[in-house]
Amino acid sequence: MCMLTSGLEDVNSNIMTSNGRRNAPDNDALDEKATRIRDLTKLINEPQALSLNLEHLQAAGGVKALLETVGTDADSGASDASIEKRRELFGCNTLPSTPRKSFWQLFVDTFDDATLQILIVAAIVSLVIGIYDDPATGYVEGMAILAACLIVSVVTALNDYQKESQFRELSAANDDVDVVVVRSGKFHSIRVDDIVVGDLVCLEAGDNIPCDGVLVTYDGLEVDESALTGEPEEIIKDSETDPFMLSGCTVVAGSGRFVATAVGKLSQWGKIKSKLEKEQEETPLQEKLDDMAAMIGYVG
């Protein structure tokens, strides 16, 4: 984190918060600038297009002009009074996730298994023949097979439901981290989900970058972007050659502050995760394995 939470109050007293240096617009001004802010932040946040993004940023007037557009002061950050309006206009920093399947949906999905379908058909045939031959007790074998199929389906669905619950709990715990931002001239430790466009976010070595943004101040800042771009070497960040901070990456050295320009599903990591969360089509190998399993089931 940029600063330890326990030391926030001491640091806050040393920040210049004079009204003359604050540049945060009121909510009406944000409404008026909303379209312009969206267009500008989109232009400077194209994936895998560093030179083009840098060209657009420079054409817009550089970091200073960007800060003025989003209503953020380089020292005191965004105003506390504008946070809710920013969240309303530009969204929050929540990443997309696949809607969870209910227990009933998982239970129904278990009947897609070819082996289970064959057993159910065999149970029905056995039930019909058994009742025809011996109406008193002929149903026992068929009902036993159906009961076994039901038990298997319930156990499988319950197991899948529990695993899904545990996975989501672990994911939530992994994402539940705090970041330090500057608002109205004071340091605040907030949840990652609470970051909004225009927030002045602080970073130190070891921190994960929570959203996309543009550097405002920096000191020997180096970032590992391999998780997002595949670049094996650390990237030196500065205002001249590469001021763009990309979500999902990690700071490996130095420190700095950046202004958030894209959050949540509009960030680089959010766009990738949105695609990953969609149901994936089966690969040719998976299709062949499914065909083989079905064939084994038919032979059995």
Protein architecture, described:
The protein has helices spanning 8-12, 27-43, 50-59, 62-70, 83-90, 103-109, 114-133, 140-175, 226-229, 268-277, 284-299, and strands at residues 178-183, 186-191, 200-204, 212-224, 235-236, 244-245, 250-262. By secondary structure, the chain is α+β, with helices and mostly antiparallel strands. Strands 1, 2, 3, 4, 5, 6 and 7 form a 7-stranded antiparallel sheet that branches. It is elongated and about 90 Å long. The N and C termini lie far apart (59 Å). Residues 1-25 have low confidence and may be disordered.
Which features would summarize this protein structure in a list?
11 helices, alpha+beta, disordered N terminus, 300 residues, seven-stranded antiparallel beta sheet
Q: How would you concisely characterize the structure shown here?
A:
The chain is α+β, with helices and mostly antiparallel strands and 300 residues long. It has eleven helices and seven strands.
| Main beta sheet | 7 strands, antiparallel
Instruction: Tell me, rounded to a whole number, the average pLDDT.
Output: 82
Note the overall shape.
elongated
Uncertain runs are 1-25
Strand content: 15-25%
| Topology, number of strands | 7
Helix residue percentage: 40-55%
End-to-end gap: 59 Å
H-E order? HHHHHHHHEEEEHEEEHH
Broad structural category = alpha+beta
Count of helical stretches: 11
Q: What does the radius of gyration come to?
A: 28 Å
